[in-house]
Each structure stands twice: as structure tokens, then as C-alpha cells.
Amino acid sequence: MMFDPQVIIEKLPEIGSGLFVTIILWAAGMIGGVALGFVVATLRRFCGPAVNLPLGFVVEVLRGTPFLIQIFLLYYGGPFVGLMLDPTPCGLIGLTVYSAAYYSEIFRAGFAAVPPGHVEAAECLGLTRMQIIRRIQIPEMALIVLPPAVNLSVILLKESAVLSIITVPELTATVSAIGSQQYAFLEAIFLLAVIYWVLVEATDRLGRLAEHRLARLRFSKA
Amino acid sequence: MTLKLFTLLLQAAISTVGISLVSIAIGFVIAILLSAARLSGKAIYVAPTQLFISFFRGVPLLVQLLLIYTLLPVIGINVPSVVAAIIGLSLCTAAYQAENMRGGFESVPKGLIEAAEVTGLNPTQTFFRIRVPIALRLTLPALVNEAIMILKSSSLVSVVGIIEITKMAQDLASSTYLPIPIFLSAGLIYLVINWVIAMLGRYAEKSLAGTSA
Question: N or C: which end of chain B has fewer CB atoms below 10 A?
């Protein structure tokens, strides 16, 4: 294989813009997914079976079908119900809704894992409802929720590559287009793999660092 | 949507299930080998194994598939695209399965391994007769999850033109202008298959729980 770094260096600005789109989509999808997922988990826990069952069904459907099918449905099916979306907003909505389903399950497990005894103990000690949520429930949940949440954000970064199929100008689409134009497809795909690999490893390490920090914080104050 | 379209999707489902099953099976065998390499404790086996697992877990499957499709012909291997897709899916799931198995292998009680050694089993026997059966029982739920993941991920092989549910749905949607019913039906088929996998998994867990260690 002949590797010509010149090709890549010339195209660095384009690759940078693709990387930028990927990171923005990833971050926005994650923030949107966490927010929506938290709302869904809260509604499912506190609003009775009339809310819990239909939401549970939607979550199951989102978790049980491929992301690509969901994106196709939104992108190609949307216009038939008056939802004309450009690829990028369509991708962002897709990522948000898809990740919200998974985040909601993580939060649900988090809620369930806070022992009721801790909440009762806090009540007996005279903490207010807000204090209990802020000082007992959220810190305990955070510790349980963090590892799967980091895991999910890594999955989300990788799923965002799928958006290249509906021509979102993110990293995969940009770099593979450069590869075809320059007749250097293999080099381009290698580069692409390495960029994702570095991003994923970095996220993973950061997540583990945060877990250690959080665990230490918790035990030092206990 | 007519029944004929749905039948076409169902036929394509056979190819989705076939590709996924073969990939999971091959990936499983590779994962066992990777676990053995990692448990050997020798750096020449452990380091490449870690690198393999980290790479295939760190790169999007779509990029892996593109890489394998481009790489195979360059290094002189010309195989049908289905085979390339299966290679891609197998390598990816092998990395995930090996990572899942790690927890299982770590929780095999030390005493059992020592007992096996004292009884005179060689390392290979200890691995296949003691470690693998115990570790696998512990990793079964994760394996079922992985099977579901691969079934969903197999939709990506549509990108390289293999006719399975997603590709069929895409072709039908563009030729009939009925994307909503077609993609909904495709989703439904995936959902039902995943449901069956989950049920089989629960059944397997239950029947394994009954047998003694």
C-alpha cells in the first residue's frame, strides 16, 4: 500500500470540519438524550401505569430496532407526514431520540438502586425533600449511573457514523468522500478508524477517571 | 402495503438472521481464543489481544466494514461481499464477546483452578473443562445482549449492497414510495426476532441455573 501523507495534509481543513460536525452531533445528541431520557425515566417512575406502559413500549421499540431503520423512517418517511428535514437536523433528532431510550433505562436502574432505607433515614433526620434529592438520591444515583452512561456515550459516538448514510457531512462521510476523490480510499478509511479509535479511548479513560473521582469523593465524605 | 411486500421483507429476514447467527458463532470461537490468550499472562499474547479488542470496540462497525471491504482485495483476498460482511461482523462481535467473557473468567474461583492443577489437569484441560464452562454460564446474559446487538448491527451490511431486511426495505421504499409502512414493517421484523432471541436467552439461563456447577 502506498501511503501519501500529502493527500491527507491538503485535506486537513475538510477533515477538521467533518470532525467538528461529528463532535457537535455527538455532544448535542448526548445532552438531548440525557435530558429526554431523564424526563422519560421520571415520568415512568412517578406517573402511574397509564404513562409507564406506553412509554415503556416506545423505549422497547427504540431499543429493539436498528438505528439505521429509525433514521430511514425519519428521513424518508418524514416528508410523507409533513416533516421535511435536512440530513443534519434529522440526524440530530434521530441520535437524541435513540439515545434517550437507552439513557432512560440507565436512569430507571439508577432510581431503583437507591435503597429506600437511605431516603427514610434522611427523612427521620429531618432533611427536606429537596435536600434528600440533592444530597442523597442524586449522589447515590450518579455513582450507579456513571459507568453505563459513559459506555453509552461511546456507543453514541460510534452510531453517529451511521448518519453518513443519509449524507450528514460528519467525519465518516467527509473522510470517505476524500478517499474516493483522491483514489486513496484505503488510506482514508484507515485514518478514519484511527480518529474514532483515539476519540473512543480518550472518552473511555476520562469516564474511568470521573468514576474514580466520584467514588473517592463519596467515601471521603461518608 | 400489500402482503407481497411484507413477504419480500420476510424473505430478506432469513439473510439477516443467517448472517447474524454465523457471525455470532464465529465471533464466539474467536472470543474464546482471545480469552485464552489473555489468560496466558504472557505479554506476546496479551498485548496483541488487548490491541485487537480495543480496536474493534473503538471503531464504528460501519468504518470496520468499509475497511475490510477495501482491505481484502488490496491484500489479494477476493471473496464475495457476504463473506466480507461476515468477517467484519465476526471480528467486531469477537472483541465485544471477549470483553464480556473477561468478567466471567475473572470470577472463576481460584480454588477451583488450583484444585484442577492439583488433580493433574494440564493448562489446556483446566481452561476448557473448568474455566470455560463456569465463565460462560456467568456471561450468558451478556451473550444474549450481544446477539441482539449484532442482529441490529447487521443492518449496516446493507451499505455494501447485501440484500437483507434493511437493504430490501430501502429498495422497496424507493420503488413504491411507501417508506413509512415499509420501514415500520422492517422495524417490526427486527423487533420480533430480538424478542425471540431474548426469550431463548431467558430459557437457556433458566435451564443452566438448574444444572450443578
Answer: C
Number of alpha carbons in the 13 Å side-chain half-sphere of residue B131: 24
The shortest C-alpha distance from A69 to chain B (Å) reads 6
Report CA torsion sign: A206, A164, B154, B195.
Answer: positive
As a dihedral over the C-alpha atoms of residue B79, residue B81, residue B87, residue B92, rounded to 10 degrees, the angle is 150
Q: B134 in a domain, yes or no? A: yes
Tell if the CB–CB gap between A72 and B158 is shorter than 8 Å: no
Q: Which of A62, A70, A73, A90 to probe by mutation at the B interface, max B CB count within 10 Å? A: A73
What residue type is A137 in one-letter code?
A: Q
Nearest Cα neighbor of A100 from A136, A147, A153 is A153
Which 8-state DSSP code applies to residue A197? H
We report the CATH number of the domain holding residue B108 as 1.10.3720.10
In a domain, B85, yes or no: yes
pLDDT at A170 over 80: yes
Is residue A25 within 8 A of residue A94, CB to CB? The reply is no
Residue A161 one-letter amino acid: A
Asked which of A211-215, B15-19, B92-96, B117-121 is least confident by mean pLDDT, the reply is: A211-215
pLDDT tens across B160-207, in order?
889 999 999 999 998 998 899 999 999 999 999 999 999 998 888 888
Q: Domains along chain A?
A: 10-221 (1.10.3720.10)
The 3-state DSSP class for residue A127 equals coil
Verify whether the Cβ–Cβ distance A67 to B67 is below 8 Å: no
DSSP secondary structure string for all residues of B141-202: HHHHHHHHHHHHHGGGGGGGT--SHHHHHHHHHHHHS-HHHHHHHHHHHHHHHHHHHHHHHH
In a domain, B112, yes or no: yes
Residue contact A161–B63, C-beta within 8 A: yes
Q: How many domains does chain B have?
A: 1
Using a CB-CB cut-off of 8 Å, the residues of chain A touching B52 are: none
